[in-house]
Amino acid sequence: MTTAADPLLSIEGLSVTMPTPSGPVELVHRTDIEIGEGEIVGLAGESGSGKTMTASAIMGILPPGARAGGRIMFEGRDLLSLSRAELDTVRGNRIAIVFQDPSAALHPLLTIGTQLTEHLIHHKGVTKKQANARAVELLDLVRIRDPHHAVKAFPHQFSGGMRQRAAIAIALACEPRLLIADEPTTALDVTVQAGILRLFDRLARETGVSMLFITHDLGVMNSIADRTYVFKDGTVVESGVTTTILNEPSHEYTKALIASRAQSLAEERVQQEARP
Amino acid sequence: MPPLLKMIGKRLLSALVLLWGVTVVTFLLVNVVPGDAAAANLSQQAYDDPEIRAAFEAKWGLDQPIWVQYVRYLGNILQGDLGTSQQTHRPVAEDLGQYVPATIEIALPAMALAIVIAVGLGMLAAMRKNRPTDTGIRSAALVGLSTPPFWLALVALYVFFYLLGWVPNGGRLSNIYDPPPAVTGMYTVDAAIAGQWDVFGDALWHLVLPVGILTALTVSGLLRFVRSAMIEVLDAEYIRSAIAKGLPRRIITWRHVFRAGLLPVLTVSGLMLASLLGGAVLVEQVLSWPGLGQYAYKSAISLDLQAILGVTLFIAVVYTLINLLVDVLYSVIDPRIGAK
């Protein structure tokens, strides 16, 4: 589903370089990515292939010393050329991110309610009372039981899956147009992964938010992404409609990824059958 | 019962066990140290008379088994009787009541100031990591840390009293004033209670130098901990989350970074406060400040055993109570601890 009109987000010739003792290393190399309105776009690739660096470049949270080149166009502005203050009006507000490990990404000493409302109050100028009411709505939206009670809870009182649901609710608080999900199921138990994936799928349909979904797992990609970019060594080696890529991969690397996925699926099945 | 009260109860109980352990050790120390109480306290003539010696030993229970003596010793402590100082010929408890407030009067303000300054500078250094501001702050702290306390006290006295005349030449009060009626033993507080504002001003003026020196020394020690704690927090993923939420720097700094970085700082601050309350011997000596440090020092060089034991017991109580306070504050700041 490529849009003929201007895409919501358009990454043009993005490169990210990191200084190392043996000279600068290019982690992302001249990458082009487009995300249309309401589209779910996947970024697939092994760890270290530059997927997370791409997401960090969009959010302006690259590691210290890293430099981004090229353009990241969003709502008519190049995010890479914005000042910190200008970028702060975009991130958390128009673009939000869900990180891999909710146990590390949520502040351990602040209540879920505070973490749900602080950016809402800041970006939307709503009162604390309005924000609290919205917080309860949001927790309900991500299917956290007893949301009135949950807003007063601290992250450690939640299970891993609930923490990730809370993190998703936090990301959605300001009704962003783009949601970046960086390996959002990788740190979770296999048993709760499917629930979180279904949640993303439902949220995309219900709220119409566009998504950039990052994962190393092609099976996950298959169940969620409309289009997929396959990343290798910091650049896109193949892109297109997800089902097409999975059924008729043209690049050797994609074939290898699919093969390794089939391998691990087979291993899982053997393990499951071996269990009493 | 609320978890916090339960926690405090548990901690108080273990504190009591700890303090009991301290009394055992101090008691054994007295009995291990070679010496004959009768010989020390009786004249040679009386000592040579076996009847008088027996009467003396019976009076003080020295003829009893050691555990009976220990129970008696414990009973005395519980009644607030810490024995009599050979040096001042007064009850040790009375001496402590006089010297401890003088130490508290400089230790508490110094600690409070040091925390404010060290946290402020430490956070600034952490946020400007490896930049000139950070290097400057760290160098200053290193200089402070490498400066011998008595040297700093001497130089400060020379500069601020002798050269500039801004502060008095040590002591707690100018000669023209009498100490205010004792309530807390802290002159500033007692003067304020009595409404003697000229005495209050003079006592405050005398606090400037000792408090300033102790503050400088404490800041130097605390700063490194604050800096490294804050650097660790700044690297945490939840701070990246806060930045990705587009929050203003003010909220990130105080709500997200400060709160999380406070925990490790709290532990170190507690230990430093306990150490300050144990008296700063060298600084007190140079500035003629009659605090616990001086009392401990004088007791030690004259082998005033009862006084040494009294000071030891007091310092043990201080450490125990401050650890308890730190634990309580910890669980107030960190909900994960209260839940356990």
From TrEMBL, chain A:
**GO MF terms, alphabetically ordered:** ATP binding; ATP hydrolysis activity
Q: Which family does it belong to?
A: Belongs to the ABC transporter superfamily.
Q: Which UniProt keywords apply?
A: ATP-binding, Cell membrane, Membrane, Nucleotide-binding, Transport
Q: Which SMART domains match?
A: AAA
Q: A Pfam family in this protein?
A: ABC_tran
Ranges for domain ABC transporter? 9-258
Q: Which PROSITE patterns match?
A: ABC_TRANSPORTER_1, ABC_TRANSPORTER_2
Q: Which InterPro entries match?
A: AAA+_ATPase (IPR003593), ABC_Ni/Peptide_Import (IPR050388), ABC_transporter-like_ATP-bd (IPR003439), ABC_transporter-like_CS (IPR017871), P-loop_NTPase (IPR027417)
Q: Which domain of life is it from?
A: Bacteria
Q: What is the lineage of its organism?
A: Bacteria, Bacillati, Actinomycetota, Actinomycetes, Micrococcales
**Where is this protein primarily located?**
membrane
Native source organism of the sequence: Agromyces mediolanus
Annotated protein name in UniProt: ABC transporter domain-containing protein
Q: Where in the cell is it found?
A: Cell membrane
Any one cellular-component term (Gene Ontology): plasma membrane
Topological relation to the membrane, as annotated = Peripheral membrane protein
From TrEMBL, chain B:
Which stretches make up the ABC transmembrane type-1 domain? 100-330
- What is stated as this protein's family in its record? Belongs to the binding-protein-dependent transport system permease family.
**How is this protein named in the record?**
Peptide ABC transporter permease
Q: How does it sit in the membrane?
A: Multi-pass membrane protein
State the source organism's domain of life: Bacteria
User: Record keywords: Transport included?
Assistant: yes
Subcellular location per the Swiss-Prot or TrEMBL entry: Cell membrane
What residues form the membrane-spanning segments? Answer: 106-127, 139-164, 203-223, 257-283, 303-326
Q: Give one GO biological process term.
A: transmembrane transport
Instruction: State a GO cellular component annotated for this protein.
Output: plasma membrane
Q: Which UniProt keywords apply?
A: Cell membrane, Membrane, Transmembrane, Transmembrane helix, Transport
- PROSITE patterns the record matches: ABC_TM1
